[in-house]
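Entry type: protein chain
Record version: 2
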Amino acid sequence: MSVIDNCIRSVMAQDLGMSIEIIVHDDASTDDSVSHIQKHYPHVRLIVSESNVGFCISNNRMAAAAKGQYILLLNNDAELFPDALSTLYEAAKRTQQPTIFGLPQYDAATNNLIDIGSRLDLFLNSVPNHDPALREVGMIIGACLWLPKSLWEALGGFPDWFGSLAEDLYLCLLARVYGYQVVALPSSGFRHWVGQSLGGGKIINDRLTTKLSRRTISERNKTFTMILTYPSPAMQLLLPIHLTLLLIEGMVIACIKLRWTIFSEIYWSCIIAQWKNITRLRSARAVIQAKRQVGISSFFRAFQGFPHKITLLWKHGMPRIR
């Protein structure tokens, strides 16, 4: 219970000078989380789900229930710095249009800076930003993401069918499509127990470690996001390259590790998922592209050309996949 305790207490300790509405979605937990929150935090609005519906639906439900002008999506394994909400609120008041904001993310286990938002490569791999002067980023992590409720509603929230993972990537890129900014603030921050919720996705002993299930969903949803949000010329050029590189990557890793399931469950299933969802993807893309407000250069302004996976491979070696 210490994880959710630290999260809620970090929100309660905010020096904001106004009331804060705290909403928690219990996603069919099997421990005593519901009774614990009801007993120790009676002021918290608790939404109890009878089944595990995933990150997207959970956040959509909480956002729909929220009454405030602004929404902060906050993972249960994240802890805000005392001035986090005041920093976000003051930045939101100063901006000229609705904007997605994020804060510096620190590893709760080491207190090391993880990122100040992320840039992206052309294949939608996040590139951690460590430059406090770089404000416009490609993505703000959903573990701590602030935006006006009106912008959340304009974007339509998270796609229910994503389940979990890359929904923050989708939301930020959709905002860019519609001409809204995605900004990382250099001050304040939050601590994050990375991988506590879904496992993996972090560097352990200088090696990237992840779960098979996590990597499967991540690659699938990143590809969905590319199809939905990329401008047509870029999508037509990059999607075939992206899918080809995924298959090559999968075969190489599977051969090196002598585990065919790595190829079949992560990489081949990603290809199959695009085919199975082709009608849904075409329909959703048509709606999104009809509302496009920015050109190719503006859309890709927070991107880098060099594939970040090559950098990770060079720096940390072959990933551990559990």
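Comment: The mean pLDDT is 92.
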